[in-house]
Amino acid sequence: MYISNPCTPHPLLSSGLRKEIGNWRELTTGDTVVLLTSDKRNPRIMGRVDDISDDGRYLWLLQDSGAGRRLLDRAEGYTTFLD
């Protein structure tokens, strides 16, 4: 799991990202997001929010590059940014 530290920028971030999202309930359908993971093979997941569970634990993401729809669980430790 990646724990963000405001003093140490994450190596995969670009300057175009707007703000870190602490609670997925802050997102709305259609938002474009970047999720950072601890998976070294796929450290960055990008796409458009399709749906969010009422409690903000689960997020359905329409992934970029034709990778399909994916269900993500907040407990997996994603760091989420609006793009």
DSSP helical segment count: 0
Q: How large a portion of the residues is in β-strands, by DSSP E?
A: 35-45%
Q: Percent range for helical residues?
A: under 10%
Characterize the main sheet: 6 strands, antiparallel
Order of helices and strands: EEEEEE
Rounded mean pLDDT score: 84
Strands side by side in the biggest sheet:
1-6-2-3-4-5
Rg result: 12 Å
The span between the termini is 21 Å
Low-confidence stretches: 1-12
Shape: globular
State the secondary-structure class: mainly beta
Report the count of strand segments.
6
Which quaternary structure do these chains form? single chain
Short note summarizing the structure:
The chain has about 80 residues and is an all-beta fold. The protein has strands at about 20, 30-35, 45-50, 60-65, 70-75, 80.
